[in-house]
Design brief:
284 residues; alpha/beta; Rossmann fold; globular
Length: 284
């Protein structure tokens, strides 16, 4: 990112796990910045995308080891911050939307009560104000009947409605940065577009930063400003989303070639050919 001071600065981020089969380096020397813009992180499953997003909020399990030369969010040193400071950062200043709301929402609490509870924890609202804020946010994410959704349980909502409820929960505290980890992968194409339009309106309208984690290159190219391409825990290429078609790294080119295109039918899709040296290369 150029120009304005970045919201988030990540330098030489590493996440490692000691397993029975040896040391697993999930994230290896990742460096990037994020301002008030939409940044996509793409790559295959296991490339380190989600681990990078979780590491920013220090949501790494005890079996993992997180290190970095710098991990800063505006004036906060996220590496040195105590747990109380991190609780203030999580949700209030940096929010994260996970892939499947079924695993993020409490099945025995109504959706509205969970959203209001999050607001009361981070925004210090009383019960009445939290309820009103929750209803307003449910309307903002285009729920047709906010009152009915507020009183519903998670299993009573469709996948798209559940994802909208999660967005309402995370954005109701007016964070500066949103990390969205595969927020549309479990949804059909029509609902995907609806959820992306909501995210775009809210993020752009509020002047927030967004990290959009996805395996869908076409989706990221149409939605984000910049793209970081990850392979084997490293960023192998960084470029403008509008220039994704002119990618220079063979891994990015391979991902693009493997995507079917309606306007260019072919009998066989290209097969990815990987070079172990890619895992050792710096960003070009």
């Amino acid at each position: 990112m150029t120009g304005a001071q970045p919201l988030l600065t990540v330098e030489d981020l590493r996440v490692e796990y000691q397993t029975r089969k040896g040391l697993v380096r999930a994230v290896r020397g990742v460096t990037f910045t994020v301002g008030r813009e939409k940044v996509g992180i793409v790559g295959e499953s296991g490339s380190g995308k989600s681990q990078t997003g979780r590491a920013i909020l220090r949501l790494i399990p005890p079996t993992g080891r997180l290190t970095a030369k710098r991990l800063g969010f505006e004036e906060v040193d996220l590496l040195a911050a105590d747990e109380r400071t991190m609780r203030d950062v999580r949700g209030q200043r940096i929010a994260m939307v996970l892939q499947d709301p079924k695993f993020s929402l409490n099945p025995v609490m109504t959706v509205g009560k969970q959203i209001a509870e999050a607001y009361r924890a981070h925004a210090e609202l009383d019960a009445g104000a939290a309820r009103k804020r929750a209803l307003d946010m449910l309307a903002a994410v285009r729920m047709r009947e906010p009152e009915r959704v507020y009183d519903s349980y998670p299993h009573e909502l469709s996948g798209g409605m559940g994802q909208r409820a999660m967005i309402a929960m995370m954005l109701g505290t007016d964070p500066d940065l949103l990390i969205a980890d595969e927020p549309t992968s479990a949804l059909d194409v029509t609902v995907q577009m609806q959820v992306l339009a909501i995210l775009d309106d809210l993020v752009t309208g509020r002047g927030m930063g967004l990290i959009f984690i996805s395996h869908d290159l076409n989706l990221v190219a149409s939605f984000c400003d910049r793209v970081l391409v990850m392979y084997a825990g490293r960023i192998v290429e960084e470029l403008r989303a509008s220039e994704l078609g002119q990618a220079k790294h063979p891994y990015t080119q391979g991902l693009l070639a493997a995507l079917p295109r309606v306007d260019q039918p072919t009998r066989e899709l290209a097969v990815m050919r990987r070079d172990p040296a890619w895992a050792m290369e710096p960003v070009g």
